[in-house]
Amino acid sequence: MTEIRVESSEDYAKVRKLHLIAFPGPGEADLVDRLRADGDAVISLVATIDDLLVGHVMFSRMSAPFRALGLAPVAVLPDWRRNGIAARLIEDGIKQAQKDNWVGIIVLGEPGYYKRFGFSVAKAEKFESPYAGPYLMALALQGNDLPCQSGRIDYAPAFLVLG
């Protein structure tokens, strides 16, 4: 049975290894480490099955005209993909962000996947961002709309190293 829980410092090495396995290079693993070191990691959840860490998601502080988080990265070990683990991690992270009174979440990803969680390209299209375009999406957490419809949004500085 899959357990979703808050990441602890004892998970850090396992989370790093997970990202190194899940992605073709060290970029996402380095990003997670840097977000933690910079104090920008806000919500970090892991998925475990028995004692095996199989998934991770991180939500980090963003610069925006409202209280916002960025969703990235999310990773699941290859042998455990297509079992709903990433979806559960994302859903639990969204619920925690709502409880913590965050106003919105931004994600850069595949619209066909993220729309199931309520993310919308339309909600993000008027914001100024280096990532502006058809893959930048927003989710309003305190009602149907974000409190403002335009302005500048930026991921935490750690994302700049990803290019």
Shape: globular
Q: How many runs of DSSP E, i.e. beta strands? A: 8
CATH architecture: 3-Layer(aba) Sandwich
- Look at the structure and name the CATH superfamily: Gcn5-related N-acetyltransferase (GNAT)
Low-confidence stretches: none
**Which range does the strand content fall in?**
25-35%
Question: Largest beta sheet: what is the strand line-up?
Answer: 1-2-3-4-5-7
- The average pLDDT value, as a whole number, equals 95
Ends distance: 37 Å
Number of discrete helical segments: 5
Number of domains: 1
Q: What is the name of the CATH class?
A: Alpha Beta
The radius of gyration computed from the alpha-carbon positions, rounded to a whole number of angstroms, is: 15 Å
Give the helix level as a range of percent. Answer: 25-40%
CATH fold node name: Aminopeptidase
Describe the main β-sheet briefly.
6 strands, mixed
Order of helices and strands: EHHEEEHEHHEEE
- Give the structural class: alpha/beta
In brief, what are we looking at here?
With 163 residues, the chain is of the alpha/beta class.
Which features would summarize this protein structure in a list?
163 residues, alpha/beta, Aminopeptidase, two-stranded parallel ribbon, 5 helices, 28% helix, 29% strand, globular
Structure characterization notes:
The protein has 163 residues and is of the alpha/beta class. It has one domain: Aminopeptidase (3-Layer(aba) Sandwich). The protein has 5 helices and 8 strands. It has a 6-stranded mixed β-sheet with strand order 1-2-3-4-5-7. Strands 6-8 form a two-stranded parallel ribbon. Helix 3 (85-99) links the parallel strand 4 and strand 5. The protein is globular. The termini are far apart. The model has no long low-confidence stretch (mean pLDDT 95).
